Each structure stands twice: as C-alpha cells, then as structure tokens.
Amino acid sequence: MEFLTELNRSQGITILMVTHEAEMAAYARTIVHFRDGRIERIETNTAKAGA
Questions:
Q1: With 90 as the cut, is the pLDDT of residue 38 above it?
Q2: Which domain holds residue 37?
C-alpha cells in the first residue's frame, strides 16, 4: 500500500481499489460505498483529504 500511495503522490497515478477491508480503505482519499450494485454513499477520508 505504501508503494501505491507513493505512485499516486509522486506520479499522479490514480489508483482504483476494491476492498472489504477497512484497513485498506483507510489509505483512500475518497471511499465509495456500494449496496446491491448501486452507489449508497461517497465519503471523503478526512485523514487523507489534505495528503
């Protein structure tokens, strides 16, 4: 995850990750929650928003 975070930061590469693990989702700036194939909500990870 640190490698992907660094690629995003240094190269501007967008990373799309699908996970059920909260520990992995914590690395994301934006988290999109789905239920039954539809977007339920979109949230900004305030801990990563300024990163």
A1: yes
A2: 15-51
